[in-house]
Amino acid sequence: MSLFVPKFEESVIVREAEAEVVGAAPATIRLLADSSATGGALSTQRVTLKAGADGAKPHWHDNSAEMFFLLDGAADILSGEDVVTAGAGDLVIVPPGKPHAFAAVPGADADLLIVITPGVERFEYFRHLQRIRLGEATAESILEVQDLYDNHFLRSEVWETRRA
Asked: Are 85 and 75 in contact (CB under 8 A)?
């Protein structure tokens, strides 16, 4: 086991009113702290989903674990071949290499705090997704930056069946 010691000297404080917001209902992302702000320790964002809305499609990270903490509501979270329904106060941590996805359950909103550790520069990834939503970039363009953001997509029959 190696020990990663992040290198940054000042506390990171992000006020809700100052957080960059990407997207709009049914899926809103608040960019809180990127890897560069935390010396590589973590990247974090808050994702708010309207009832039944998709968060992230099935994917995995080679080098980072991803933590999902439900601030409010309920979300389905894919972890490998299992789908866990998490409610307010629940925590799910997915290890590196394990496929995962998340979405609000039908009939319920979801408000999630998401942390990736060690951190990856992710803010530009979310901005890229926004450009796709706005028609400024193609959906296929996200495949060109999978390695850059350590975000690799795959199909999941378990997830597709659950979300059908």
From this structure: yes
User: Among 96, 123, 124, which residue's Cα sits nearest to residue 4?
Assistant: 96
Q: What is the pLDDT of residues 43-52, one digit of tens each?
A: 999 999 999 9
| Confidence (pLDDT) at 1 | 53
Residue 75, CA distances (Å) to 7, 40, 108 in order: 34, 28, 8
Q: How many CB atoms lie within 10 A of CB 85?
A: 13
Q: Phi and psi (nearest 5°) for 13?
A: -125, 120
Contact status, residue 22 vs residue 127, Cβ threshold 8 Å? yes
Find, among 142, 40, 59, 149, the residue nearest to 97 by Cα: 59
Nearest to 117 by CA among 58, 56, 34, 47: 34
C-alpha 147/C-alpha 9 separation (Å) is 29
Cβ contact 42:16 at 8 Å: no
C-alpha distance from residue 37 to each of 26, 122, 139 (Å): 28, 11, 29
Quote the radius of gyration of the chain (alpha carbons, Å): 15
Q: pTM for this structure?
A: 0.94
